[in-house]
Structures are given as structure tokens and as C-alpha cells.
What we know:
Layout: H1 2-14, E1 18-23, H2 25-31, E2 36-38, E3 60-61, E4 64-65, E5 73-76, H3 81-91, E6 98-99, E7 110-112, H4 129-148, E8 155-161, H5 164-173, H6 194-200, E9 205-211, H7 224-235, E10 238-243, H8 255-274, E11 282-287, E12 290-295, H9 296-311, H10 315-321, H11 324-338, E13 350-353, H12 360-370, E14 376-379, H13 417-427, E15 431-436, H14 438-450, E16 461-465, H15 481-502, E17 505-511, H16 518-527, E18 531-533, H17 541-554, E19 561-567, H18 576-586, E20 592-597, H19 609-632, E21 634-635, E22 638-639, E23 647-653, E24 656-661, H20 662-665, E25 669-670, E26 675-676, H21 685-691
Parallel strand pairs: 1-5, 7-11, 8-9, 8-10, 13-14, 13-15, 15-16, 16-23, 17-19, 17-20, 18-19
Antiparallel strand pairs: 1-2, 1-3, 4-6, 11-12, 21-22, 23-24, 25-26
Helix pairs in contact: 1-8, 4-5, 5-11, 5-19, 8-16, 9-10, 11-12, 12-19, 15-16
Amino acid sequence: MNAAVRAVVRVGLYTGSRVFFVYEGYQGLVDGGENIKEATWESVSMMLQLVRDRDRDRGTQGHGQGQGHGQGDTGTRTGTRTGGHWGICSWAGRGNGVLLTGPSLSLTGPSLSPGSAKNYPKPELGWGEGERGGHRDGHGDGCGNGHGWTQEWTRGWTRGWMRGWTRMNGWMGGRMEEDEGRISPCSHPCYHPVLPQTRDGGSRLNIIIVAEGAIDKHGKPITPDDIKTLVVKRLGYDTRVTILGHVQRGGTPSAFDRILASRMGVEAVMALLEGTPDTPACVVSLSGNQAVRLPLMECVQVTKDVTTAMNEGRFEDALKLRGRSFQNNWNVYKLLAHIRPPATKSGYTIGRGTPCHLSVTLMGLRGASVTPGLPPTPLTPCFIPQVEEIGWNTVGNWTGLGGSKLGTKRTLPKKYFEEISANISKFGIHALVIIGGFEAFMGGLELVEGRARFEELCIPLCIIPATVSNNVPGSDFSIGADTALNTITNTCDLIKQSAAGTKRRVFIIETMGGFCGYLATMAGLAAGADAAYIFEEPFGSRDLQANVDHLIEKMKTTVKRGLVLRNERCNENYTTDFIYNLYSEEGKGVFDCRKNVLGHMQQGGSPTPFDRNFGTKMGAKAVAWVTGKIKECSRHGRIFANTADSACLLGMRKRSLTFQPIAELRQQTDFEHRIPREQWWLKLRPILKVLAKYNIELDTSETAHLEHLTRKVLVPEATL
């Protein structure tokens, strides 16, 4: 939440408002005195990497008076939506111009969506979710690694987790592929036949995940100890219980959480300044990739409806009330956890080409493809025809592995059409799922062009974007980018920490990404950089000098350190060495410089929870789409797909995952620089500069508007 506090304070000061901290929650408003202090720009410095409130564990709260841009006082506080609901009910008609705003809620101002439990109805993302998922995935990997050196034991792990949402996302992100005995809501584990099935299939480890409030169909609580007793008594497995507890609440915030909280903090201030005395209190959150504002009272009511539905045993209604994102995750969870390969095959085969991907995606492909009886056949590596059939257990432990288990190459298929066509016929491949970066996109275009000469290529084709550069047209995010972003952010944290003791030091850090400045920009936002140089935003010597002057002025304050990021191909003349030498010369006597080229360390590491979940859902959704296309294009026992919509790219666009014909994406692509012509994250760059205290105009053209929660049943994006 510190990233949100930082954003609210600095954007509030940027707009000309006075900002106050209110400590000890709502009690601080009652007691006053030392519990209310005015915030300054420097008071929120070095907060991004802190997990708890900087000054006091119980948080901060905001107080303000007046309305209008540059006229009012704003502030920040942390807390829960329930407290805000109580405040609105108790203070109705007594506001007298007093506003409470910030990361929680206000009488007439905005509310943010914090909390690792993610127990709010409509907002799909709350900060803390990605961070807590990281800890849970780490513990999941730990259980798996423990299994690695105890192969002589047949062991089951029972783990207690907080909330159903975090349990489900933790399973999808953790390396728990061998766990087929998870507890479905409303079902009792002792009757679940999957544990013996996995043991019969060769598995020596099962992990059962239990939410802290888990109940069975009759409302009876389910505890880890209960499950352990049942497993030991009925199956005779050696079982251990691990309750994670408040370990899930600690740790350094992930890059995802920092960026999310920063965006929500900015949106909260904008909502406050745009509001009037008649504007209802709202919740600020993120839906997909777009900021949204929702009426607080409606969110509270839906939360109460969920509780009522659970108490009355209407579990399906409770799932629907949780929102579309929750339903989609639950459907994927059930698909991969409970459905086993059928005894009979459908006769269709799906091939997977992998120019560059994270292995986690094939976990999603595994569950989705075997469900209708499709034998999966990966093409490895890239488009060079090397074919091998794989089964359910082949990719069982791939979720927590980085890199590509199938190998990577940048070879394009155009030179190998004859060999590829021959292998498609030989192995009876009826569809292709290509997981990769810009080469995967270009290869898909070439395969579509080759359909005119090779009938074997007239099969459904789906591309899943997976590259750390996040430069694939048609998708706001690509698998692997979040992992690289966290690596950069964590490195920047360590570098800033080293500079904190030295004082008056500026670091120049070079990031990857090719011509795409996504990593440099988002890492700058997550790490609190003073500048980020990218290709998409041309700069010259005057801009460099202005940045140096800005840092010289910064050294006069209490914050005597600087961080500058440079995309590796932002400018062929203004290299990292050039910028380092310029800063060193112009800052002589005021600050000294150091440089660091991160290199290929950005491409390594274990996938983050976001990438694991994102890849799993993308893989499952891709195979569901491909399966439908196979049936749609089947005529008289053969498949013939040559329409534009039979070759698509699956990407995240604003609020949903969408399939887009790759032929239509050609016009949206800058092939020379290997980037999309329009990139959503460029609109976040003004936020980076405002938070670094540059005097610029903040673009508010795309701020969110108040939306009302729909009472109709929310339909999942795709039925798997």
C-alpha cells in the first residue's frame, strides 16, 4: 500500500493540494493531535519497496477540506471498505465539507482496493494479490523441492491458506501439478478419487490446499487437520500439515503491486478532484488493464450478498457474485485439477511451436487439450520440424520453471514449408498453438501466406505472446514480461539501498526490450526512477541536460540519490556509456555516477505468480478456441481452414482476453523496429515524471468514469 500512499501524496501536492497523514486509522481522526501530520514530497521517499506502512504499522489516513483543483486539502489513510461504509452511514448529512480520501475510502471521495485476500466483488485486481501470490508460490515450490530429495517417501502435504481467491491463484501459480486432490468448494475431500489416481499414475506427492474459511456442502468447516486425519485413515499416506498464516502478509511488494497501487493512487486523486458534494463514494480499481470507479455502497452490498449466498448454501450464486475474473480462474482450476484424460481419443492432434516461451503455458495447454481427447504434440524447437508426442504427466512440473523446456530459435518457417507440411501430414496434426514473441507473430503471418501453396497449412492456428520485451502486437501483456520486470525492480531496490548510505550518487541502469521501452518505463514506475529513456519517446541533448539539472536540484533536498533507466536500443548515439559520461561530467562536485548493464539476468529466474497464472489461462483458452475451430472447419473427415479468423493471436486487450486475426494486426505493426504502432503503457509515462517531480502536464483524458455494478449474472469470458 506504500506505493499508493506515495502516489496519492505526490499527485496531491502536484495538483496544489495540501496532504495530511492520519495515523492509527479512524481512531486517529477522533484523537487528532500527533495523529494528523502534513505530508511533504520527501516524506514518501524510499517507500516503494516497503511492505508495511512506513511510520506506523496501523496505517495512515487522509483529511482534507474544500473542493476543486489546487484548492483543497487531501490525504491518505489505509483501512477497509467496511469501515468506510460505517463512516458513510454514521456521518450522512454531517460532512460539512470534510473529505476522507486515499487508499481506503471517503465520505465523498474515492476508495482503493487493497488486500491480499481479494475478497471484493467487482474489482479484478487489488494490490497485495500479486505479492501474496509470490509468497504462496514460493512455498508451493518449496514443497515440491522437498519432494525432490525424499523420493523414497510417499507423502501428502496439507496447507492452510487465507481466502478462497488466494488459495486458487496460489494453486494455479504454484508448482502443484501433481496435486489432484484439491478441495473443490462444497465438496468433501475424503470422497475425492483423484489422490489414488495420481499415485497409480506414478506421482509420489500430493498437495491439498485449504482456504481458512473452507466449508463443505452442509456448511461444516473443513480444516487441514481434518483432511490429514481422513487421508491417513482412509488412504494410509504419510501426511504433513503446514499453515502459512501471516507469512503471506510479509515481504517486499512485487513490481505488479507497485504499479497497480501507483495507478490506483493517481486515479483516486483525480476522482476526488473531479468530484462534487453530490458524487457518491467510489472504489478505484483495475479491471483487466483499465482503471474503473465503482460505487462503494454497491460494492459493499454485493459483498454482503456473497455472505448471504454462502450462508444459505447457494454456492453457485456466490461464485457468480464474486465476478467474472473469479469465475474464469475457478473454471481453469477445475479444468486442470479434476479432469483426467478420457479413455478414447477424438482423433485430433494439436501441435505446439515454441520460438520463445515460459514453460508454464504448456501446463494450461495440457489440461485443456487432453480434455476433449486431443493428443498434444509439440514442435521443438521453433518451426524446424522436430515432433514428439507428449502426455498428461510430461509437463506436470513445468509451472515453476523458467525458460523454455522445448528450446528456442529465431528461425522462421518460410524456408521450411515443405518439411513442415510433410510432418503435419505424417503426424496428423490438425491445429497449431505457437507460443513466442515477435518471431512467433511473424512466423504465423508466413504460415498464413503459405496456405496458398500448401494445403497442409490450412489448419487452425493460435499464437500466444510470450516475450520479456512485451512487443507483440495485439496484446497489452505477454508471458515473461512480468518476471523480467520483477528482476529489474528488485535489482533497482538493491542499488538504491546501496546509494542510501553513500549519498549523492546517481545510477544509470540499462534494461532489455529491443526497441520496446516497456521494461524501462514500468520498472521506472515500480522502482521510483528519476528518468527512463526509451525509443518511443525521442530525446536529445537538451533533454539529457534537463535531467541532469533536475538531479542537481534533487541533491539539495533530503533525498540525495538518483536512478536513471535506459532501454538498450533507445538511441544509437546516446548510449549507456555516453549518458554515464555526460552525467558524470555535468554533475561533478554535486554527485557521482555508476552504471549497470543488467543483461541476460532479466531473462532468467522462476516465473512470477502473474506469469504463471496468465500463461496457464492463456494456454487453456487457446486450446478451447482451437478445439472449436477444428470442429467448425471439419468437412467430410478432413480439416480445411483458410479464412482470416482461423489464424488468430490471443491477447489481453483492456478488460478481456480476445482472439484477433493476425492478418488484421499487420497494419498495427512497426516491422522495422519490431513493436506495435500503438502501446497502452506510453500513457503512464507522465505519471512516472510527475512522481519524480517534473513540472509537466498530467494527461487525464482517459481517467475512469463511475460505473454501476450489474445485477445480472456475469458470464465468464469463455466456457472451457
